[in-house]
Design a protein that fits this description.
By secondary structure, the chain is of the alpha+beta class. Helices cover 20% and strands 12% of the residues. It is built from two helices and two strands, in the order βαβα. The radius of gyration is 18 Å and the shape is elongated.
Length: 105
């Protein structure tokens, strides 16, 4: 895994969607109903809104988009035959409505 590339051997769809969620900083839900493990090879040009990582796992600064290059959305569709579709749905979140300093013991 590096900026603009992913090679996964015996990868589940759950692991692949988790990777996409991290890269795109969005919740990705697997609605493919595909089970089993898959070999995945994906190449794209990292763009705006994507969290690029280097092979060492460090987060790199976001790269500017170039409209002539292949986005991760297009790459997923053209190279894997899957479609990323934006929809609205329920998400988990935490609400903190009150905070106090601890009392002395």
């Amino acid at each position: 895994m590096g900026p603009g590339s992913l090679i996964g051997n015996a990868t589940t769809m759950a692991l692949f969607t988790r990777f996409l969620s991290q890269r795109l900083d969005r919740t990705i839900v697997d609605k493919t109903n595909l089970t089993g493990r898959f070999d995945i090879q994906l190449k794209w040009t990292p763009g705006v809104g994507e969290n690029p990582f280097d092979p060492g796992g460090r987060t790199l600064p976001p790269l500017p988009a170039d409209s002539s290059d292949l986005s991760i959305f297009t790459a997923v569709q053209e190279q894997l035959g899957l479609k990323l579709e934006s929809t609205k749905g329920p998400v988990d979140f935490l609400v903190i409505d009150h905070v106090e300093e601890p009392s002395p013991n």
